[in-house]
Amino acid sequence: MRLDKLLSEVGLCSRTECKKAAKAGRITVDGVAVKSADMHIDPEKNVITYLGQPVEYKKFTYIMLNKPEGYISATDDKKDHTVLELLDERTQKLGLFPCGRLDKNTLGLLILTNDGELCHRLLSPKHHVSKVYYFRAERLITDEDKERLESGVNLDGEMTKPAKLMLYEDRMSGQLTLTEGKFHQVKRMLEAVCNKITYLERVEFAGIPLDTDLKRGEWRELSTDEEAHLRSFLN
Prior knowledge:
Elements: H1 3-9, H2 15-23, E1 27-29, E2 32-33, E3 48-50, E4 53-54, E5 62-67, E6 71-72, E7 81-82, H3 89-92, E8 97-98, E9 107-113, H4 116-123, E10 131-137, H5 143-151, E11 154-155, E12 158-159, E13 164-167, E14 173-178, H6 185-192, E15 197-205, E16 208-209, E17 219-221, H7 224-231
Parallel strand pairs: 6-7, 9-15
Antiparallel strand pairs: 1-2, 1-3, 3-4, 5-9, 5-17, 8-9, 10-14, 10-15, 11-12, 13-14, 15-16
């Protein structure tokens, strides 16, 4: 891998900035200052520093974000704020994208990554990856409503897959577990039983729960165990 490519991929600098830093002697490889940013290095073997700081290379990055209201699940938009704007400047340079979508006014767990293969696998209908949503409804959910929601409802001519609904004592709130991700699915499912969502938050994705220490708009990288769990879906 070229040195300038590595430094740009980890978000430290652009290739132009890397070239200038190399000429100024601000990049070292195995303790030796380099003058050429296009030299080839092995990120697994060579020890690299940039501006005196060691460079840690990761091929892929996985981030857990507690999405606030008003942000859209996109990498760029001319009208609305995107979830990538919640990241720091360096992390924004890593080429991350949302793994799945949350509606503009839906809160909670969103995974951001630059691992396209894993993202495709997690979102593929063939793999039935679970998503758990906490919701509040406008009116009581009856036993008949619960049975319909769990067995499947008709959304524009297409039946939803079986779901799991855990109702809270008030019967106006609970947790709904889905294994698919149709457009505005939870809201449309409640509308199919003549009800309406008043609050919606994703609290778990692919078996990984939302970190309750993360405030709205905050994020962190996945732990080693969480990352390994997600990547197990590739097997």
